[in-house]
Amino acid sequence: AYNKYKKYVPAELALAQLATEGGFSSNPKARPIRTKNPFNVGNTDDGSNIDMGAVQEGINAYYNLIARNYLGKGKSAKDLVQDFVNHDGNHYATAGTYEKLVNQIARQANRIAQTVV
Questions:
Q1: How far does CA 31 lie from the centroid of its chain?
Q2: 3-state secondary structure of 91
Q3: Pairing with 74, which of 13, 40, 87, 89 sits 20 to 30 Å away (CA)?
Q4: What distance in Å separates the CA atoms of residue 5 and residue 51, rounded to the nearest whole number?
């Protein structure tokens, strides 16, 4: 995604979204696991799913989406964890607490990373 869009998707943002979306689940029936789409890109609240051929395709779809449609044009990853909207003003997820949870996990990941360095 960086090579294509010249935008860096921070690891703490990706990890926070992966955890929030359920991509770490060990349940084979969990939606992101079943669809090989760990970030639920295109899996919508109305039940529509996008089945990826492989987990790596789901990961690539996420990174490309965030780099292409969310970062840049004055938006940073720090902005997104407060208000996760794309360049057109559309939210990444409709859950009311989505940004709060992503923000909380991203902060925790960032704190852990800072103590390791």
A1: 15
A2: strand
A3: 40
A4: 24
What are the tokens at 109? Answer: 């990941």
Residue 1 and residue 7 in contact, taking contact as beta carbons nearer than 8 Å: yes
Provide the Cα torsion 94, 85, 48, 105; round to 10°.
Answer: -70
Q: Would you say residue 114 has pLDDT above 70?
A: yes
Distance set, CA 33 to CA 18, 38, 97 (Å)? 11, 6, 22
Q: How far apart are CA 27 and CA 18, in angstroms?
A: 15
Mean of the per-residue pLDDT values for the chain? 90
Residue 70 backbone phi and psi in degrees, to 5: -120, -40
Query: Quick one: pLDDT at residue 116?
Result: 67
Tell the residue number behind the tokens 């997104």, with chain if given: 80
Predicted TM-score (pTM) of the model is: 0.87
Report whether 20 contacts 34 (CB < 8 A). Answer: no
**What is residue 69's DSSP assignment?**
I
Average pLDDT value for residue range 48-74: 95
Is residue 23 packed enough to be buried (19+ CB in 10 Å), middle (13-18) or exposed (0-12)?
Answer: buried
